[in-house]
Automatic annotation (TrEMBL):
UniProt xrefs under InterPro entries: Aldolase_TIM (IPR013785), GH (IPR017853), GH114_TIM-barrel (IPR004352)
Name of this chain's protein: Endo alpha-1,4 polygalactosaminidase
Keywords noted in UniProt: Signal
Pfam families referenced in this protein's UniProt entry, alphabetically: Glyco_hydro_114
Record carries keyword Membrane: no
Renumbered residue ranges of the record's region Disordered: 23-51
PANTHER family named in the record: ALPHA-1,4 POLYGALACTOSAMINIDASE, PUTATIVE (AFU_ORTHOLOGUE AFUA_3G07890)-RELATED (PTHR35273), ALPHA-GALACTOSIDASE (PTHR35273:SF2)
Organism of this sequence: Streptomyces katrae
TM region positions: none
Occurrences of domain Glycoside-hydrolase family GH114 TIM-barrel (ranges): 53-267
Length: 274
């Protein structure tokens, strides 16, 4: 789940709604975005360790950051924007919340009240009862269809560690594994790659089901070594820090081959790289 404080959620939503222009990139880029080889039928994208990326979930989308991978909001990013990124040689990741309900999404009314648990620390968000896969699968499948139909290469499913939080439901590690594997299958059935968001304790069981990882603040919490199974499997770890300067984590990131960024909490355009 997102680690940054709940008080910032209101700011985040206001920035998204206003589509304001975020601050420019603070680095000089990493060279031209590559032209990716054509995928064979049934073959999905597999990002490799160290792949540079941009993570922007709020504000007017800035497509000028010179990196090969963009991770952007699945609902707010249009099919035309995804196509433009693809024409420029970028791969695109569709951010979705799959473990928590958000009252500001257009499909919020499709979720029965009985699926909704306690708040997850973000305004307008509540944990989902992931035990109820029969109810959740069609709801998530519709969201994954949206990502596929917009042309995304992959999905970043958020809030994937409800069992480690006070969700309002008696969730276990086995419930989480079952649900996370369902989420991976929904992506793969649609030809998209999928990233494991945080959920560090279950990496050994899930590294084979997921194509890459997305992590927040592993350096701040001294957890980055737990992500090495993805690197050893030849799979990228897209990593962001909010409170640490690059001087505090880049040496370790380079040693571990993480794709690391320093971001501001609103996850706008601004970034610093190692």
């Amino acid at each position: 789940m997102k680690r940054f404080p709940a008080v910032l959620a209101t700011t985040l939503l206001l920035l998204t709604a206003a589509a304001c222009t975020a601050e420019p990139d603070d680095d000089e880029g990493v060279g031209p975005a590559p032209t990716w080889p054509a995928q064979k039928p049934g073959e999905r994208w597999q990002p490799r360790p160290g792949t540079p990326w941009q993570w922007q979930l709020t504000g007017k989308l800035d497509t000028s950051v010179d990196v090969p991978v963009y991770d952007v909001d699945g609902f707010n990013t249009t099919k035309e924007q995804v196509a433009a990124l693809r024409r420029d040689g970028r791969r695109t990741i569709c951010y979705l919340s799959t473990g928590a309900w958000e009252d500001f999404r257009p499909d919020a009314g499709d979720f029965p009240d009985s699926l909704l648990g306690k708040g997850n620390g973000w305004k307008g968000e509540r944990w989902l009862d992931i035990r109820r896969t029969t109810d959740l699968e069609p709801l998530m499948a519709k969201r994954f269809d949206m990502c596929r139909d917009k042309g995304f290469d992959a999905v970043e499913p958020d809030n994937m560690d409800a069992y480690r939080n006070d969700s309002g439901f008696p969730l276990t590690a086995e419930h989480q594994l079952t649900y996370n594997r369902l989420i991976a299958r929904l992506a793969h059935d649609r030809g998209m790659a999928v990233g494991l968001k945080n959920d560090l304790d279950q990496i050994p069981q899930l590294v084979g089901d997921y194509d890459f990882a997305v992590n927040e603040q592993c350096a701040q919490y001294d957890e980055c070594d737990t992500l090495t199974p993805f690197i050893k499997a030849g799979k990228a770890v897209f990593h962001a820090e909010y409170e640490l300067q690059t001087s505090r984590f880049c040496k370790q990131s380079k040693r571990l081959q993480l794709s690391s960024l320093q971001k501001k909490l609103d996850l706008g355009v601004w970034r610093r790289t190692c």
